[in-house]
Amino acid sequence: MRALDTAYMWDLVPVIAGYVPLTMFMAVVSMVAALVLAAILAIIRVLRIPVIDRIVAVFISFFRGTPLLVQLFLFYYGLPQLLSFMTAIDGITAAIFGLTLHFAAYMAESIRGAILGVDRSQWEAAQSIGMTQGQLLRRIILPQASPIAAPTLMNYFIDMIKSTSLAFTLGVTEMMGATQKEAAGSFLYLEAFLVVALFYWVIVEVLSVGQRWMERHLGKAVAR
Amino acid sequence: MSCNISISGLTKRFGTNTVLNDISLSLTPGERVAIIGPSGTGKSTLLRCLNYLDRPDKGLITLGDLSVDAERASRADILALRRRTGFVFQNYALFANKTARQNIMEGLTVVRDWSKDKARARADEILARIGLADRGDSYPSALSGGQQQRVGIGRAMALDADLMLLDEPTSALDPEWVGEVLDLIRRIADGRQTMLIVTHEMQFAREIADRIVFMDGGRIVEQGPPEQIFGNAQDERTRAFLRRVG
Question: What is the ipTM of this complex?
Answer without folding.
Answer: 0.92
